[in-house]
Write a structure and sequence with these properties.
Layout: H1 2-16, E1 41-43, E2 58-62, H2 68-84, E3 90-94, H3 99-108, E4 114-117, H4 122-125, E5 132-136, E6 142-146, H5 152-162, H6 165-169, H7 174-186, H8 190-197, H9 207-237, H10 240-253, H11 258-272, H12 276-298, H13 304-317, H14 322-337
Parallel strand pairs: 2-3, 3-4
Antiparallel strand pairs: 1-4, 2-5, 5-6
Length: about 350
């Protein structure tokens, strides 16, 4: 019996896991400024901080892969993420577990919201048991604490009602644009991420916005370096068109970066090579023609604006090809015929 009691107490310590010094804080953090969060690594998002998310409603959850109630709560949080992300709400799940444990679990559970691992932030929040959720209002104050399945929806709704409509739903705000950048980077859609990053206004950037922009640029520069390395492997294999695509990608996703400069210079070298240039040009012609043909098969089911955007994209990507020029002409004709 004494042994079983010791085991039970040990398990309780794992659930508490944050020291008795913080136990007195539970229930006392509501109404106070939310402690800053930290994690050693992030999934589904770049590194996040509450300082950078000021102006947003933020949900901070503490959980673990071994926690049964946490597992049961995850589908609900995924649904809330789908429902409230378009309205500017950011959901963050923090655990102290290593990436090797969390990453496959998050993939299996189809977790879409931001996950930070190797985190010790639960200590500052005085968490004794998990799952535990805190709602942080746009001013950075904790306004609600509880179980993910115990009124979180209502707590989020209450905060959104207090926000001006434009702040709650404006998809054009820098924070909302940067959220989209993070989503595209998480999906490794680096070209799309770069395009969204360009939409963040250059003037009057808050400190949090500047930090996020710098972080995303660093992530894109890292991806560009990988694309540059991939291009060199293609060159070594004599796959010149594939190399040109990788070089163009590197230059596009991280303009002004060192990787982009090297990619542009390397592409110029290939285009000056009498063996490589014809192969690259043929590849571009084929790719453009395929893209235009695919669009023609789908355009009957597309809105005119989407067709025009697709034509513009083909013209932009392959301006020196027949299909690219045809796409540009068709897009111009569509605009001329608009009422």
């Amino acid at each position: 019996m004494k042994h079983l009691l010791g085991v039970a107490m040990g398990l309780a310590a794992v659930v508490v896991g944050f020291g008795t010094a913080q136990a007195q804080m539970v229930g006392q953090i509501v109404g106070k400024e939310a402690p800053e969060i930290q994690a050693q690594y992030w999934l589904n998002a770049p590194a996040l901080t509450l300082a950078a998310l000021r102006g947003r409603v933020v949900v901070v959850e503490f959980w673990a892969t071994w926690c049964g109630p946490c597992r049961q709560s995850i589908p609900h949080l995924v649904e809330l993420d789908k429902q409230y992300r378009p309205r500017g709400v950011v959901i963050i799940g923090l655990t102290d577990e290593p990436k090797a444990t969390v990453e496959p679990f998050a993939r299996q559970m189809q977790m879409t919201y931001a996950v930070g691992g190797g985190s010790s932030s639960s200590r500052e929040y005085g968490v004794r048991g998990i799952p535990r959720v805190f709602v942080v209002d746009p001013s950075g104050q904790v306004v609600w604490e509880g179980h993910p399945m115990g009124g979180l929806d209502q707590a989020i709704e209450e905060q959104l009602k207090k926000m001006p409509p434009a702040a709650a739903a404006d998809e054009a705000t820098p924070a909302a644009i940067l959220d989209r950048v993070g989503e595209e980077i998480a999906k490794e859609n680096y070209a799309a991420a770069a395009e969204w990053l360009d939409k963040v206004p250059e003037t009057n950037r808050a400190a949090g916005v500047r930090r996020r922009v710098e972080g995303y640029r660093a992530a894109l520069a890292k991806a560009a370096a990988k694309s540059l390395a991939q291009a060199e492997r293609h060159v070594k294999d004599g796959a010149w068109y594939e190399a040109s695509v990788a070089l163009e990608t590197a230059a596009r996703i991280a303009p002004r970066s060192e990787a982009a400069k090297r990619a542009e210079a390397r592409l110029a070298e290939l285009m000056a090579d009498e063996k490589a240039r014809p192969v690259i040009e043929q590849g571009r012609e084929a790719a453009a023609a395929t893209a235009l043909a695919d669009l023609e098969t789908k355009q009957a089911e597309m809105a005119p604006a989407d067709v025009g955007a697709a034509l513009d994209e083909i013209a932009r990507k392959w301006p020196d090809t027949k299909a690219g020029r045809d796409a540009a002409a068709r897009a111009e004709k569509m605009r001329a015929e608009e009422p």
